[in-house]
Please model this.
Amino acid sequence: MDKSTSLSKRPTVLKSIASRPVDFANRIIIYILFILLTIISLYPFVWLFLNSLKSETEMFEQSWSLPTVYHWDHYARAWEFGISRYLLNSFLVTVLTVLLTVTLSTMAAYALARFKFPGQTVLLFFILGGLMLAPEVSLIPLFRILVRMGIYNTYFALILPYTAFGIPFTTFLIRAYILGLPKELEEAARIDGAGAFAVFRHVIVPLSRPIIASAALLQAMHSWNEFMFALTFLESDKLRTLPIGIMSFVSTLRTEWTVVMAGLVISAIPMILLFLLTQRQFVRGLTRGGIKG
Amino acid sequence: MLVFIYIPVIQNFIFSLYRWSALDPTWDFIGFENYIRIYSDEIFWTSTINNIWYAIISVVVQIFFALVLAALIESKILSRQFGNFFRTSLFLPSLLIVTIVGVTWQLLLRPDIGLVNQMLRAAGLGSLTHAWLGEEVTAIFSIIGVSQWQWTGYVMILFIVAIQAIPKELYEAAIIDGANGIQKFFNITVPGVRETTLIMATITVIGAFKVFDIVWVMTAGGPNHASEVLGTYLYRSGFRNDEMGYASALATVLFMITFVLAFIQLRLGRSGEEL
Model:
């Protein structure tokens, strides 16, 4: 009895707690903590951007202040000096990897979720086991396989391993989602004479669109950021993706730090833009997967 | 596709029993000699200890600290707009390619123009300045710090989502019972996000043993192998020193470590059974 009345009065209860002096002090401390953390998080971005626009001497002598002359030409120079090439490579590798992974995984997930066949549990564990593996472990054997297949130092030297490492998790994610879908629609489609593939294309894929989008995002972030394979399986500079491309960009421009910084800013833009444009879906996509690079 | 994942593990073990290099076609079968060498290899132990530090610090910061931050943001102490702003700002670093993070922090940590030392001097703490990445003691901890900078906000977001899934009634009941913020945190929030915590802990710990990229970008394991981790040491042995057999043996050890860790944590987190 008593409880239900005080529940409905909740806002006033909260307000009275919040206005106590101790809580006010706590609140200030918490604000200060977060403001400090925000500065630590964001200041490197600001610093990088401002210094990328300064002249070389100004950057060394006054790295705190605003630039006196804005050198936008550093951006043009960074762009021509290779960043555009690396961006394009990253883009190609990412798009192809995502398409391949998502297509294969969705089919595998459907098969695992809806059909019974011998060895199914074994196969499922087989796929899940792939999740645990440190990629370092397969680095050397993979290197040899790629050389022998004749695709070492091509885009495929990245696309195939990324896809192979992406499939387990993606399949797992999509399978869990398909298991939660109602079966009635599929049954209705079957009664109407649709075959397994038609059901997959016209029922399962449209219904699973949200999880497919999440899976695609996670896979895209992975291939966009991947470092070790990109370092090992490609050697020609023309094919490099951003993570390694930036490294060679930095070492060729050793002394021109401001141009390097401009290059770093350009490389950071695509992901941040994608995030800012699709914030809500982006976060939802991440949390469905809940993993990090 | 599974050819790319499973066969390599077995191959890797077989490769580790030989002395071989990528350039030279001769393979000497040497049995477990590579493993004996690992056992008495100081760089291997330095690397392992660095990985352990990496794991400990990451768990403290990215699990405990991130959870506290998430709880504070969700506790409505901050106004809604500020909460959202903080959340987004802390998340942004995780969107950067590791090379961008590494190179930027290399600049910020430089002894001469780096911002970190300048700030310390400005705060009158000149005695604390270091050549962060150039000194053997500070190198690995600087890298670990940068990694926390990049990932804490990310984990925080995952915790925020987990906290939002806790039924509001629990908190309301607790307020009525006169619980304070800290009691609510330990009695409702912490048990409520147990699942997420276990998953994140597993990923963070295994991730700390798999780490390669940020270390390679920032110090490549130097100075004098002081910031070497298993990933970089393995890479250096195989692809720089061309001791492929030894690198394969290191990879097998790494595989065992991550396998055991994953197994332990699966056991601890029996609740995560969705199969």
